[in-house]
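G., before I forget:
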Amino acid sequence: MRKVFFAALLLALGLLFIGQAQVPKLVVYTYDSFASWGPAKFIKEEFEKRHKVDVEFVATADSRAMLSKLIQEREAGKQGADVFIGVEAADLSKVKRYDLFIPLTKEDVPELANIPQGLLIDSQNSAIPYEHGYITLVYDSQALAVEDVPRTFEELLRPKYKKMLILEDPRTSSPGLSFLLWTIHRFGDPQYLDYWEKLLPNILTISGSWGEAYDLFQGGEAPVVLSFSTDTAYSMIEKGSARYKVMLLDNQGYRNIYLMGIVRGTEQEKLAKEFLNFILSPKVQEKIPTTEWMFPANPEALLPVEFYQYAVVPPQPVMLSPEEVGKNLDRWLRDWSRVVLGG
Amino acid sequence: MALAFYYPLLRLFQEGVVEEGKFTLKYLGEVFAEPYFRHVILFTAEQALLSTLLAILIGLPWAYIFTRYDFPMKDTLRSLTIVPFVLPAITVAVGFILFFGNNGYLNRMLMEVFHLQGPPLRLLYSLKGIVLAHAFYNAPIITRMVGAQWERLDLAYEESAQALGAGRARRFFGVTLPLLLPSLMTGAALAFIFCFLSFPIVLALGGARFSTIEVEIYTQFIVLYHQRLGAALAIVEVLLSLLFTYGYILLEGHFTRELEAVRPRPTAPLLRQPTPGRIIVWLFIAFSSLLFLGPLISVLYDSFTREWAGQTIFTLHWYSYIFKPQYEALIGAPPLRAVLNSLQFGLAAMGLAGLIGLPIAFVIARYRFRGRRAFDTLVMAPLGVSSVALGAALLTAFLRPPLQLREGWLAIVLAHAILAYPFVIRAIVPVLEGLERGPVEAARGLGASRLGAFRDIELPLIRRGLLVGAVFAFAISLGEMSATIMLARPEWKTMPLVINDLRAARSFGGASAMSSLLILVTGGAFVVIERFGKRLFGGGR
């Protein structure tokens, strides 16, 4: 009797495992906010309805840390992920250097045909865009009157803005990096360092992440923060008021494009291609504005009303080429930290 | 243990001195040669020193208050003094900003009362803010350590001084303080080490302009992926902190004395008619409470309020928000689960730390051998190692053969236990060293086995030390973030990680709600452990 019972148990377990093995797994590495509050849940549910697959999101940290994790795993010969979502344009050279993703064509990902050429910054399309946005300064219209808002980089240096700026650390924050690159674009290398030296008295603090910076800003610690050009729309949707306004400097904003790719060595290449295609479909792209607070890569996607009314597209967006960034980033960050170190 | 800790760490250090198979001092040299790094090292020492001084200024009077006075809920309060020490930096930072910030509750109140235009107290985003937060964290250490000795101080010394005509001030500075000096120095040394290694607080309240060695390690290692430079920095940091730890151990040797039969010190009730002395004490309590309670209550208050269309309203919105199904479905760790994870890891880490720490403490306390102090220092090394480096080391060590563990709960428990067991040792060794060998030897003479003698005689006597160590270990596990964040899979997220997630996702009220939960769980756990522990090992002293 015992033997029969155990045999049945083993059989049942065996069947269970076989059952599990039948459903393929797609492991997606992404950054924490994409998984927790971003469109990840929607994507997972909808994709699993259409395909027999178990989508697993791994999102333990911010995008740069996740990229480091992927690189480390690849160097150790381990295959942890099938798909990676969240490479920022500035890190594209890392993707190329470590040969992380496989090149894609319009046959692989049909929706690519709809993506504007300006966003396809990887000529091989191994890293393709899923969203983009503009980094700008944002101010609290209740604390700073419209006439007092600086309109150029030089005006920002004025003593009356002493300790009014909250910025982010370019080493740990994507918007922070964008701003640094923006100043390099505007003033050149190494003149941008002079600008930063003069800007220092007006900076309240340089936070480690956008989240911390925005927390301080919303708490009223300072009236200006480095953030996204969609912030007024965010303010409208989440708080019911257009209190936070976008500040353009020299009519510019820094453009940031976020990319995704299929990790080389994956066993789920076909599924992964369908997955990326799904993310670029209008159905998913329409979720991007209210979860990521960015613009979708696919122009076919409709935006929420508040975005049409309040989200700002700078007249003259700027962006450094990924190659230039890849070549010089280490040195730039090093020089920047030396200028900025106080204490 | 040696395998779990030293192996990954040595691999890490290897990166700092070996390049392409050859031993090189290039990176270490860079650390010392570059003015930038020298500046960072000096600043680290400077802020640690100032923080320690402030911690003493606040912690010492509190020790006096606990020793000299009686007041309602004294025991509970004593248990809770440790809570600030173990709160994750993210919660403390938020609390400080909410309370002490330019637009914080304190400044807003002052501006209203005194009709001021701008905030009068600009404390944060500078060295002042860092020092203040460090004092918040470390004053309790001073209070506990000095208080423990103060209570056992034989009154005879002070009484004879009094009989000889010395006034109160003279008695304090001439007799009491020198007697307290050992525990004071020990507590100060410990506080200094913690401030030296502090990382998230420095970042949160100082920002990128204030960099300590630990921050640099994080930047070089995790952010810039400069493994070798990061490893070199970690080496320098460990060497420096080993130096400080060695100093601390030397001091501790002076601290321990044989437990004397001591008359309990008389205590006076605190809440009685005001005398000049009492009034000063009350004022001090009021002001220092601002430091301790202000930030914590601010976090609690923040979790219950919300802004909508310019108005502030009371609401349970944030709490229902963090318990929403859509959050739990995806991450795999609903907030309640995160609480459970934290508690489970805490208990496991506490157990493991105890298992590792107890035998080592015995070896150190009972056996006299050459290089004992050095052994003690080495064993204390985790205290001085950056948790960032440890997390990174564990990650790399367990990613490659031969120790290929999957990142999982075991690695987390290991990391927590490693970070915590030095506390267990430090809590038990002084007590063990103070115990007389008499009873044990008598028991053995009567036929008891070594284990039996341990169980029946020594264990009950060291229960206090064991309890303190266990409490510390549990607490450290609860609040740990830097190492855990690198090792945790979604389903094993702990409370601090969830708080971090919430902030990254613009849910600041949710983060406050979770932080409040963490504060309550931590405080509650402490009270429970201390009460339960007292009953388990026999009541009272």
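The radius of gyration of chain A is 23 Å. Chain A touches chain B through 57 residues (CB under 8 Å).

More on Monday.
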